[in-house]
């Protein structure tokens, strides 16, 4: 213990004085234990007055307590330990402090000791956090090379340059959208987890992304957002949902033959019959332009029987390997199933049907008259392939989606903790009074939770202002200008090839200014909690 | 009184019966909904795991979810290739950065927090408010100045520089968290030790530190995850030879699409240790979060 004391004390006069001031006070009865220490003696002569005045306010004084624990052995060695650090002139101080401690009988070490405890932390904070703030303010007033004073020029260019304006716009989108969604989802999940089984497991699952690095989360979502529905799970889900609700068959590239004998022509993407057609005469709509492989499993095309109603056949009028009669159904030719067919009269669609697997269709119950049969464009468009998540239009919403995935669990756990602190009586009383669950939630749970919700919300805003990794990782290089945010732009202009540390410093100061309101919020909250 | 109260209670009981039926149905729906949400949350990470375990040709030709129809496609080749290509050294760098940065923050912050909590000195409250203010200071502010400073000191690109940066920026939160825990320690315990004449060092080491184990565990896991998962700081301050996993993987992002066989197992390796720690210490993690949700 003596060694531990000696180490730091040897580093500076101030600390040793702290030891000195407490030393004599512990051993007024036995000054002989004082063993002179040269270093401490030197510093003490200089710091004598402050040491004494310190001991007026905060003092450790076994003298007061000696009636209580005078018979306890530890006091002896401990006192001796202090005494080794005590200076020769301690006796004089001891008299003074002994008098002082009578006036202020409080336990506690000298403030000088606090310096010792605080020094490493304060040095690091001063050099790595405070100094950089000052330096950045100064640096932001100079140009990219750092030798020409430009005043507020860098700040001006933040608000005039189109690329930085994009980052500000994106940050605004982030701040408006992400914290609200995260807080709302956290609230919903927190309330709902209270009502389900295995709620702990559920919470762990939602909370797990917090442990994952944002880089890994970025890689994860690059995979999720892959364009190809056979690779990216987002588009795989979207396309399968889309296909479940829309007609499955689609024949991109199918078209009628472009010659005079062909009974149908292309018209604005759709395929229509050249002649007016009537019920009783089967309509033939031969198409070409499809790869044989796409229909190799389809049944052979059949001629639609005449008879009641308007009927016909849509088929691929190509025989594999050549041959066959043009515009006639040959035995090897395949029907095109699932094609939407419209009966049009006077420009209006009168009826709609779909071809069977063998390509035949029939409108039944159609009023007599002459029609044009039309295969609308939707039959020939390329199949829906999902969304371009990582394109310029959707990139920011896509990254916000990943952000929500990461942070919703955080919000949920915080809000759930607040929820568990709500008095159950209040909720039960409201239920007994006949309130619906929604009323309980809206009128009691949410207001009682509002302090927690505010903390989560503010934490998210601070966090969102600094968002960097997710944008950097998820946005492909070509789209990064559209997805850019302030924190990323700061890195880009200063280190990522921009080479403009003047602008970079201005951006970092801008970022700091943005979080200042939340600094004040935190300080206020702390003072209220302490007060 | 009682007679008046009874009819009031009878009605809610009936309503409760009805309410319970509704709750059963609603509860079932809620359960289903939440299971779906949980699946939704698990799916992306599961995807990463499966992709990391599939060969390049499989990944290029079909989605990872086809695993469920033909599970024989799994292989550890990606992982062995990745480790053979030197990824192990960046894993080691991550450890070399994270462990000291975590231990130093705990030690230095605990000392400072002790002073803030239990030693009276002039200006204490003001200094502590400054620490709280520093909680939200963005890391970006220090990148340029500290890069200059490190160039001057000759430690730019070194692991030491990265560690010191992480320690400094971890301190405000760490001091805040520990100080708030320390002030909750019963005054009598400290005063008894002081009366015994124990010096502050000993009180700190033998009374406060052991009592604060839960808070220190919270802080430890928080700081560990923060440093382990950091990308921005190492992007600026770590040389290629000292780069941790995050920076090594980031440098692969440009070829995304052609090198999923490197990125997926790399990302999974980088998240497996945080994940294990998280599941082992999630209680402390939550406590730390509740104590300091301001960063």
Automatic annotation (TrEMBL), chain A:
<keyword id="KW-0762">Sugar transport</keyword>
<keyword id="KW-0472">Membrane</keyword>
<feature type="transmembrane region" description="Helical">
    <location>
        <begin position="113"/>
        <end position="138"/>
    </location>
</feature>
<dbReference type="InterPro" id="IPR035906">
    <property type="entry name" value="MetI-like_sf"/>
</dbReference>
<feature type="transmembrane region" description="Helical">
    <location>
        <begin position="172"/>
        <end position="192"/>
    </location>
</feature>
<feature type="transmembrane region" description="Helical">
    <location>
        <begin position="503"/>
        <end position="523"/>
    </location>
</feature>
<dbReference type="Pfam" id="PF00528">
    <property type="entry name" value="BPD_transp_1"/>
</dbReference>
<keyword id="KW-1133">Transmembrane helix</keyword>
<keyword id="KW-0813">Transport</keyword>
<comment type="similarity">
    <text>Belongs to the binding-protein-dependent transport system permease family.</text>
</comment>
<feature type="transmembrane region" description="Helical">
    <location>
        <begin position="402"/>
        <end position="422"/>
    </location>
</feature>
<feature type="region of interest" description="Disordered">
    <location>
        <begin position="1"/>
        <end position="83"/>
    </location>
</feature>
<dbReference type="GO" id="GO:0055085">
    <property type="term" value="P:transmembrane transport"/>
</dbReference>
<feature type="compositionally biased region" description="Acidic residues">
    <location>
        <begin position="62"/>
        <end position="72"/>
    </location>
</feature>
<keyword id="KW-0812">Transmembrane</keyword>
<dbReference type="InterPro" id="IPR000515">
    <property type="entry name" value="MetI-like"/>
</dbReference>
<feature type="compositionally biased region" description="Polar residues">
    <location>
        <begin position="52"/>
        <end position="61"/>
    </location>
</feature>
<protein>
    <submittedName>
        <fullName>Multiple sugar transport system permease protein/alpha-glucoside transport system permease protein</fullName>
    </submittedName>
</protein>
<dbReference type="GO" id="GO:0005886">
    <property type="term" value="C:plasma membrane"/>
</dbReference>
<keyword id="KW-1003">Cell membrane</keyword>
<feature type="transmembrane region" description="Helical">
    <location>
        <begin position="204"/>
        <end position="225"/>
    </location>
</feature>
<feature type="domain" description="ABC transmembrane type-1">
    <location>
        <begin position="168"/>
        <end position="522"/>
    </location>
</feature>
TrEMBL record, chain B:
<dbReference type="InterPro" id="IPR000515">
    <property type="entry name" value="MetI-like"/>
</dbReference>
<dbReference type="GO" id="GO:0055085">
    <property type="term" value="P:transmembrane transport"/>
</dbReference>
<feature type="transmembrane region" description="Helical">
    <location>
        <begin position="262"/>
        <end position="281"/>
    </location>
</feature>
<dbReference type="GO" id="GO:0005886">
    <property type="term" value="C:plasma membrane"/>
</dbReference>
<feature type="transmembrane region" description="Helical">
    <location>
        <begin position="126"/>
        <end position="147"/>
    </location>
</feature>
<keyword id="KW-0813">Transport</keyword>
<dbReference type="InterPro" id="IPR035906">
    <property type="entry name" value="MetI-like_sf"/>
</dbReference>
<keyword id="KW-1003">Cell membrane</keyword>
<feature type="transmembrane region" description="Helical">
    <location>
        <begin position="203"/>
        <end position="228"/>
    </location>
</feature>
<protein>
    <submittedName>
        <fullName>Carbohydrate ABC transporter membrane protein 2, CUT1 family</fullName>
    </submittedName>
</protein>
<dbReference type="Pfam" id="PF00528">
    <property type="entry name" value="BPD_transp_1"/>
</dbReference>
<feature type="transmembrane region" description="Helical">
    <location>
        <begin position="21"/>
        <end position="43"/>
    </location>
</feature>
<feature type="transmembrane region" description="Helical">
    <location>
        <begin position="91"/>
        <end position="119"/>
    </location>
</feature>
<comment type="similarity">
    <text>Belongs to the binding-protein-dependent transport system permease family.</text>
</comment>
<keyword id="KW-0812">Transmembrane</keyword>
<keyword id="KW-0472">Membrane</keyword>
<feature type="domain" description="ABC transmembrane type-1">
    <location>
        <begin position="91"/>
        <end position="281"/>
    </location>
</feature>
<feature type="transmembrane region" description="Helical">
    <location>
        <begin position="153"/>
        <end position="182"/>
    </location>
</feature>
<keyword id="KW-1133">Transmembrane helix</keyword>
């Amino acid at each position: 213990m003596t060694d531990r004391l000696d180490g730091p004390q040897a580093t500076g006069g101030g600390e040793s004085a702290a030891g000195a001031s407490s030393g004599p006070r512990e051993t007024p009865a036995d000054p002989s234990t004082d063993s002179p220490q040269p270093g401490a003696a030197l510093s003490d002569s200089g710091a004598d007055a402050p040491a004494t005045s310190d001991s007026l306010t905060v003092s450790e004084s076994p003298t007061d307590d000696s009636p209580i624990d005078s018979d306890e052995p530890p006091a002896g060695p401990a006192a001796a330990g202090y005494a080794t650090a005590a200076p020769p002139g301690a006796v004089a101080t001891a008299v003074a402090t002994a008098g002082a401690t009578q006036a202020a009988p409080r336990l506690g070490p000298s403030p000088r000791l606090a310096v010792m405890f605080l020094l490493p932390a304060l040095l690091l904070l001063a050099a790595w956090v405070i100094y950089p703030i000052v330096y950045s303010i100064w640096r932001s007033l100079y140009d990219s090379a750092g030798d020409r004073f430009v005043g507020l020029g860098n700040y001006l260019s933040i608000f005039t340059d189109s690329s930085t304006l994009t980052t500000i716009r994106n940050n605004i989108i982030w701040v408006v959208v992400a914290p609200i969604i995260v807080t709302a989802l956290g609230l919903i999940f927190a309330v709902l987890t209270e009502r389900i089984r295995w709620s702990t497991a559920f919470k762990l699952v939602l909370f797990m992304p917090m442990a994952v690095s944002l880089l890994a989360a970025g890689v994860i979502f690059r995979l999720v957002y892959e364009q190809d529905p056979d690779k990216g799970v987002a588009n795989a889900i979207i396309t399968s949902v889309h296909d479940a609700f829309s007609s499955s068959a689609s024949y991109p590239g199918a078209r009628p033959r472009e010659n005079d004998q062909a009974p149908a022509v292309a018209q604005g993407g759709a395929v229509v019959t050249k002649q007016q057609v009537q019920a009783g005469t089967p309509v033939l709509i031969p198409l070409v332009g499809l790869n044989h492989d796409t229909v190799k499993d389809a049944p052979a095309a059949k001629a639609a029987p005449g008879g009641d109603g308007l009927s016909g056949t849509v088929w691929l009028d190509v025989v594999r390997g050549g041959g066959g009669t043009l515009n006639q159904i040959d035995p090897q030719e395949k029907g095109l199933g699932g094609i939407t067919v419209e009966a049009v009269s006077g420009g209006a669609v009168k009826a709609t049907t779909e071809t069977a697997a063998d390509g035949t269709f029939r409108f039944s119950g159609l009023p007599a008259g002459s029609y044009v049969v039309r295969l609308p464009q939707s039959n020939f468009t390329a199949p829906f392939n999902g969304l371009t998540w990582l394109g310029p239009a959707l990139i920011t919403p896509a990254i916000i989606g990943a952000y929500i995935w990461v942070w919703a669990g955080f919000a949920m756990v915080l809000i759930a903790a607040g929820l568990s602190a709500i008095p159950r009586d209040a909720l039960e009383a409201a239920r007994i009074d006949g309130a619906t669950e929604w009323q309980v939630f809206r009128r009691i749970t949410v207001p009682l939770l509002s302090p927690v919700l505010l903390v989560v919300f503010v934490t998210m805003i601070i966090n969102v202002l600094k968002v960097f990794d997710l944008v950097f990782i998820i946005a492909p290089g070509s789209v990064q200008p559209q997805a850019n945010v302030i924190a990323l732009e700061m890195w880009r202009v200063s280190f990522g090839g921009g080479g403009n540390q003047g602008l970079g410093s201005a951006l970092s100061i801008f970022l700091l200014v943005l979080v200042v309101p939340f600094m004040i919020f935190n300080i206020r909250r702390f003072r209220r909690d302490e007060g | 009184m009682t007679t008046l109260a009874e009819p009031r209670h009878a009605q809610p009981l009936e309503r409760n019966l009805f309410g319970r039926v509704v709750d059963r149905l609603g509860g079932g729906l809620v359960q289903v909904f939440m299971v779906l949400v949980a699946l939704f949350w698990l799916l992306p990470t599961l995807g990463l795991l499966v992709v990391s375990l599939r060969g390049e040709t499989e990944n290029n030709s079909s989605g990872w979810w086809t695993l469920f129809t033909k599970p024989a496609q799994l292989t550890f080749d990606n992982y062995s290739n990745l480790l053979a290509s030197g990824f192990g050294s960046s894993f080691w760098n991550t450890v070399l950065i994270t462990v000291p940065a975590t231990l130093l923050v705990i030690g230095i912050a605990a000392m400072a927090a002790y002073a803030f909590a239990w030693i009276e000195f002039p200006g204490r409250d003001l200094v502590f408010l400054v620490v709280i203010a520093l909680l939200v200071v963005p890391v970006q502010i220090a990148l340029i100045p500290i890069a200059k400073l490190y160039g001057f000191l000759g430690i730019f690109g070194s692991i030491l520089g990265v560690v010191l940066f992480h320690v400094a920026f971890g301190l405000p939160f760490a001091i805040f968290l520990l100080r708030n825990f320390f002030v909750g320690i019963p005054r009598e315990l400290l005063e008894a030790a002081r009366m015994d004449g124990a010096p502050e060092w000993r009180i700190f080491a033998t009374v406060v530190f052991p009592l604060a184990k839960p808070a220190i565990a919270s802080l430890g896991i928080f700081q560990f995850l923060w440093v382990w998962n950091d990308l921005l700081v190492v992007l600026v301050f770590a040389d290629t030879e000292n780069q941790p996993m995050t920076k090594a993987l980031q440098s692969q992002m440009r070829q995304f699409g052609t090198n999923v066989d490197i990125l997926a197992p790399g990302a999974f390796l980088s998240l497996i240790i945080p994940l294990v720690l998280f599941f082992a210490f999630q209680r402390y993690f939550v406590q730390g979060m509740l104590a300091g949700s301001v960063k």
